[in-house]
């Protein structure tokens, strides 16, 4: 029998159990934001011949947040024809997915193009700002560009 006994998780349904070999087995999704620790009591019953004997073992289980990669909110941007070098096209909207209460914030530290189109018409900075890199962006020569962005924290 496994149950929560005290602390911030008292009365919370545990997302794991202990199998017959004594291994802790996860039975449902474990979320740091739901609980960052559990206080667990395991009762072991010996129901052999004679009187039933029980033993108890108490231990904490600590949940650590797992850093998630940033996501891109604006995967498609549009620009007017004949835009000059340095003109801001827009921002790809990098979203930090690691703002978990009680954990240290992890900021998006870089974004870069990992594949570019021809001609290579745009630049990106660490904040996800896209600017025109060509002298002039001419839609009569090319109107759609495809880039792949890598963002990391």
Summary, kept brief:
The chain is an all-beta fold. The chain has no helices and 14 strands.
Query: Number of DSSP strands?
Result: 14
Which secondary-structure class do the elements indicate?
mainly beta
The termini sit apart by 41 Å
Order of helices and strands: EEEEEEEEEEEEEE
Shape: rod-shaped
Unreliable runs: 3-8, 102-106
What this model shows, in words?
With 153 residues, the chain is mostly beta strands. The chain has 2 domains: 2-62, no CATH class; 71-152, Immunoglobulin-like (Sandwich), CATH 2.60.40. Helix content is 0%, strand content 39%. It has no helices and 14 strands. The strands form 6 sheets. A 3-stranded antiparallel β-sheet has the order 1-4-5, with no helix packed on it. The chain is rod-shaped and about 90 Å long. The two termini are 41 Å apart. The relative contact order is 0.17. The model is unreliable at 3-8 and 102-106 (pLDDT under 50).
Q: What would the keywords be for this entry?
A:
153 residues; mainly beta; Immunoglobulin-like; 2 domains; three-stranded antiparallel β-sheet; 14 strands; disordered N terminus
Indicate the topology.
Layout lengths: L1 E3 L11 E3 L5 E3 L10 E10 L6 E10 L8 E2 L10 E2 L3 E4 L2 E2 L14 E6 L6 E3 L4 E4 L3 E2 L10 E5 L1
Antiparallel strand pairs: 1-4, 2-3, 4-5, 6-9, 7-13, 8-12, 10-14, 11-12
């Amino acid at each position: 029998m496994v149950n929560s006994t005290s602390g911030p998780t008292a009365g919370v349904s545990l997302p794991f159990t202990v199998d017959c070999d004594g291994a802790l087995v996860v039975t449902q999704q474990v979320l740091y934001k739901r609980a960052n620790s559990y206080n667990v009591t395991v009762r072991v019953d010996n129901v052999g011949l004679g009187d039933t004997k029980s033993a108890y073992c108490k231990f904490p289980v600590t949940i650590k947040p797992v850093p998630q990669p940033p996501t891109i909110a604006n995967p498609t941007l549009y620009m007017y024809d004949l835009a000059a070098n340095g003109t801001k096209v827009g921002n790809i909207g990098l979203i930090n997915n690691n703002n978990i209460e009680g954990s240290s914030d992890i900021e998006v530290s870089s974004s870069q193009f990992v594949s570019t189109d021809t001609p290579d018409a745009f630049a990106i900075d660490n904040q996800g700002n896209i600017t025109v890199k060509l002298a002039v962006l001419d839609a009569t020569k090319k109107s759609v560009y495809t880039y792949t962005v890598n963002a990391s924290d």
